[in-house]
Amino acid sequence: xxxxxxxxxxxxxxxxxxxxxxxxxxxxxxxxxxxxxxxxxxxxxxxxxxxxxxxxxxxxxxxxxxxxxxxxxxxxxxxxxxxxxxxxxxxxxxxxxxxxxxxxxxxxxxxxxxxxxxxxxxxxxxxxxxxxxxxxxxxxxxxxxxxxxxxxxxxxxxxxxxxxxxxxxxxxxxxxxxxxxxxxxxxxxxxxxxxxxxxxxxxxxxxxxxxxxxxxxxxxxxxxxxxxxxxxxxxxxxxxxxxxxxxxxxxxxxxxxxxxxxxxxxxxxxxxxxxxxxxxxxxxxxxxxxxxxxxxxxxxxxxxxxxxxxxxxxxxxxxxxxxxxxxxxxxxxxxxxxxxxxxxxxxxxxxxxxxxxxxxxxxxxxxxxxxxxxxxxxxxxxxxxxxxxxxxxxxxxxxxxxxxxxxxxxxxxxxxxxxxxxxxxxxxxxxxxxxxxxxxxxxxxxxxxxxxxxxxxxxxxxxx
Length: 464
Ligand code: GLU
Known about the structure:
three-stranded antiparallel β-sheet; two-stranded parallel sheet; 19 helices
């Protein structure tokens, strides 16, 4: 049984798009193999917790359709799925490691560690715990019994440590270079290294597919697996997404939270489709495909090791493609819901056919269609010098009995001819007079929807 997981830490506002991208791979790999996809919350770094972060993260993942078979929300056979509720387990395995001589207590004070680091820096040595406590464990235990604060450190073996990554091959590291990492902190919480190993083992995770930023930690995890006599999962480290200028994704350049994109009116299908292309390509070079198609084609072996570029402009383009493929009724429903009733259902239904080809996000509907709801407050060209044209337009429109996009169109072409004004100028003036803007949905259709009275009123208010 293939079991995958993501293990996000609730240290941000919401779920990071990078986590969604790896989440999608983990989800697809589990679904493709009739396995299980697990979400575990890694909340052991108490100082970095963001209030409400976990809840928002889980809700967003669920709304994206990355629904976990086992999670803090869904429960499951290996519950709890939140590390802060599993502390006794980490303690137990830390003690087991100590008993096996693979870990040890340390009561060094922060001041001593600082001093040690300073010395090492001065001597140009790699900063590393100097094992001061390792050689005096009996004494350390006494100090602990008397109430001293302590941590547990793993004992890094002075030997080669190897593991195989699905796409990066065998990676070997000299254990002698690694620090005796703290695995249990003085507050009783484990560090990431111990917690991730214990949980991935107990939760029977077979494939760890995670960002490459965790790769330097993997040798430490391998040491812990070996020390506890456990089998390693299959590791796959995926390349981190970059900005188009190749810099690291950061809030300063583009939004990084998945909900930022959903809030801008990116559809969940489009977001997932775009993220599926971050490190993976469709065998036929297709850009657009369904989640089911992705699941059936996806293979961790095909993941690329070059850093994929996350380009919000391309994402919007793709979203536009999804919008065009949608059933107009469904799109109208979504736009209506997106604007939470700001635009009436009737207006949205009537106007969607005019803008479906043009909008790239749900939010863009507003910039195209706000004029249906409100008279323009600004005009993109000055209309002062077109008084006589506006008067003539007003009169001709008033004389129309049958108000439809066809009759409006014919009448307006006739009027332009009568006035001897070039169509391009005539319709620009009319467009801006009615909508305020130079670029709008088709004008005759828009005027038909706005209604005769409203169009005439909009022209009249421009006549001085
Ligand atoms: N807690 C880590 C994170 O925030 C999990 C890394 C892993 O997948 O092992 O992403």
